[in-house]
Design brief:
Elements (H helix, E strand, L loop, with lengths): L9 H10 L21 H20 L11 E3 L9 E3 H17 L4 H17 L3 E2 L2 E2 L2 E3 L11 E2 H17 L4 H13 L16 E3 L3 E2 L11 H9 L17 E4 L2 E4 L19 E2 L8 H18 L41 H5 L6 H15 L4 E2 L2 E2 L3 E2 L8 E2 L2 E3 H15 L2 H6 L3 H10 L2 E2 L17
């Protein structure tokens, strides 16, 4: 979610897409790669360059006073005139500091000081309500910007970064204490707002809780696990099974989904769902589900090739992003929505950790064909369209913090698994997954749509 939405929540953009998911057909037969993918030296060099450039965003647009990260910036490094920080981008930024220290892009002590600046501001100065933070804040002061809501999902993504830093700087007493205090202060039960199991999207200062709830498969699985694992303000374990898991079919692909491709990526940037399946009544392997969703999305894009000639096996991917028409929800993972031939590099980049065998060739082809037209200071521009009106080449002038962030974390998890490793050290998530009933996945168990009492009201 970014500042060009001017206060609309990410889920408000996606609610229509989630309700219109439909059965579609494509040309290709479903074949998931079963062999372990090996990144060769040339590809590793390319990915490491992309990751290093992506990290540069979080270094350049981190505020030295507050530790907050700006929502967006120019592809050339120029700052956004709005000076708006994103809570979710700050969560990605905390994780980015850990990656930079591991890889030697930043001295570990410098990364530590960056993390401490952020955590101290979040604990002592940033506005919060029952521990929940605003979606957008002034980068210099932390004051509310863009008529922002207090956002449950953006707070969750911030907490993911907070707990990742705690995991990496495991021997730092101040970071460990601040991270624990920030997390344990969040009153997850309060965000239920009277419902027994389903969390609200947030609260609008001055008018109260938002009507929308996290009632369908989305990027909010990390929110629910953080809530269930809270030692002070937890929600019922059954909340995990209370949201709908609609089954989507495209050709012979079958998976659960509730929106665009990013909904299959964000929680996985931190939670290691590999080889795990939750309990009855869903019995879902969420990692495999995201793999399938990525393959289905690729085939969906290929099916549009008759209309958009640039789309193809190595040139695909749309997810919520900038466009020639502004910030756009392109529709569900396998439905046309408002697709207009625009390509969004972070769609494939965010799924590198699931399906590198089909995602890496996309990034290589984009770079090969368009070079520095789309690949700049922070890696790929947020979006581009090779044949916009009058066949003109359009490329976004901006990058968006959360899109740069998912690119960086997905690359790191593919190459090293480090973000999974450090985030999964925290006992909160481990306890939550144990309570929910996650077990080693059993091959051959199908994905089932379940309805367990969530309201569509």
């Amino acid at each position: 979610m970014n500042s060009k939405t001017l206060g609309l929540s990410r889920r408000e953009l996606l609610c229509a897409a989630g309700s219109l998911l439909a059965v579609r057909s494509a040309l290709s037969a479903p074949v998931l790669s079963n062999s372990a993918f090996t990144v060769n030296a040339e590809d590793a060099k390319f990915l490491e360059d992309c990751a290093h450039r992506s990290f540069g965003y979080f270094l350049d647009h981190w505020n030295a006073r507050t530790g907050l990260v700006k929502d967006r910036a120019g592809v050339d490094g120029s700052p956004s005139a709005l000076n708006v920080a994103s809570t979710a981008a700050t969560g990605f930024g905390l994780s980015a500091m850990c990656i930079a220290a591991i890889r030697g892009w930043l001295p570990k002590e410098q990364a530590r000081q960056h993390v401490l600046t952020t955590l101290r501001f979040l604990w002592d100065h940033a506005f919060h309500d029952h521990g929940w933070y605003l979606h957008f804040m002034d980068a210099d002061t932390g004051e509310r910007r863009l008529n922002s809501e207090i956002s449950s999902i953006d707070t969750a993504l911030l907490l993911a970064g907070v707990l990742s830093a705690q995991g990496y700087f495991a021997n730092d007493k101040e970071i460990k204490l601040l991270a624990r205090q920030i997390y344990e202060r969040v009153d997850f039960a309060w965000m239920l707002n009277g419902d027994a199991k389903l969390l609200c999207h947030g609260v609008m200062p001055g008018s109260g809780f938002l009507k929308s709830r996290w009632e369908i498969y989305s990027e909010a699985s990390i929110l629910y696990l953080l809530a269930i694992g809270s030692p002070r303000h937890s929600i019922p374990v059954d909340s995990w099974y209370a949201w709908l898991r609609p089954e989507v079919r495209f050709d012979s692909w079958k998976f659960i989904s509730g929106g665009a491709l990013f909904t299959h990526q964000y929680s996985h940037a931190w939670i290691d769902f590999r080889h795990l399946r939750d309990g009855d009544p869903s019995l879902i392997d969420y990692f495999q589900n995201s793999q399938i969703a990525t393959y289905a999305h690729r085939d969906f894009c290929i099916s549009l090739r008759g209309k958009y000639a640039d789309y193809g096996p190595n040139m695909w991917g749309v997810t919520v992003s900038d466009s020639p028409l502004g910030y756009v929800d392109w529709g569900g993972n396998t439905m046309p929505g408002s697709v207009n031939g625009t390509l969004v590099p972070c769609a494939a980049a965010g799924s590198l950790m699931f399906a590198p065998e089909i995602c890496l060739p996309v990034l290589r082809e984009m770079f090969s064909q368009y070079g520095d037209k789309i690949y700049r200071r922070y890696g790929f521009a947020d979006a581009f369209n090779p044949n916009w009106k009058d066949k003109k080449f359009w490329v976004d002038h901006d990058v968006v913090g959360i899109d740069v962030g998912i690119t960086l974390l997905s690359i790191e998890n593919l190459l090293t698994g480090n973000m999974w490793r450090y985030f999964m050290r925290n006992a909160y998530i481990q306890n939550a997954m144990e309570k929910v009933g996650f077990r080693i996945s059993t091959p051959g168990t199908g994905i089932r749509e379940v309805r367990t009492g969530a309201s569509r009201g």
